[in-house]
Inverse folding.
């Protein structure tokens, strides 16, 4: 079950697009359409969930819960797989965030800036997650702050960075708000 969120909070359409693309690519468009049909959504036309529009968090959570039931994956693994699948889609859609970096470490150093400044330029009313990056000699600590608590999606995005930059990475979640932690923190290291 997806953790509850404040029902009047709204997400940008891109997360809906990423979920749709993941389900369609992995399970087929008919499966995605069946998932939408099985949900009671506040949005009148869920297929209009594109680009700069804002949609209720509750719609995304309903789609996510139904997708987990329909695919049999469970919410955490589904979010992780969706995150990994989404990274190259995001890189293609927003190449200026990814170019200029040849290693995930360099990209991660800019993650706070990208989310807190650049995404706000694109979507002024976005409630963006915050990332705190701590660079240590042998690893990085990536802390994710968001009322949406989609840390499993973030774990998938981190795995996708390894694929995208073709650099081996080890990602270990060392704290999780879903398990009573104050934050969601990932320990990222680059073996070799």
């Amino acid at each position: 079950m997806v953790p509850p969120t404040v029902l009047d909070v709204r997400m940008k359409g891109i997360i809906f697009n990423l979920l749709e693309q993941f389900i369609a690519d992995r399970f087929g468009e008919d499966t995605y359409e069946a998932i939408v049909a099985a949900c009671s959504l506040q949005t009148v036309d869920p297929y209009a969930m594109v680009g700069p529009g804002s949609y209720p968090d509750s719609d995304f959570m309903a789609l996510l819960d139904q997708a987990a039931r329909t695919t049999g994956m469970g919410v955490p693994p589904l979010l992780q797989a969706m995150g990994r699948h989404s990274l190259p889609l995001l890189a293609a859609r927003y190449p200026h965030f990814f170019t200029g970096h040849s290693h995930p470490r360099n990209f991660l150093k800019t993650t706070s800036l990208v989310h807190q400044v650049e995404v706000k330029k694109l979507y002024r009313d976005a409630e963006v997650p915050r990332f705190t990056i701590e660079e240590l000699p042998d690893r990085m600590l990536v802390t994710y702050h968001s009322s949406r608590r989609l840390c499993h999606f973030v774990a998938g995005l981190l795995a996708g960075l390894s694929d995208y930059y073709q650099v081996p990475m080890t990602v270990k979640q060392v704290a999780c708000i879903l398990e009573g932690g104050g934050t969601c923190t990932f320990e990222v290291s680059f073996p070799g």
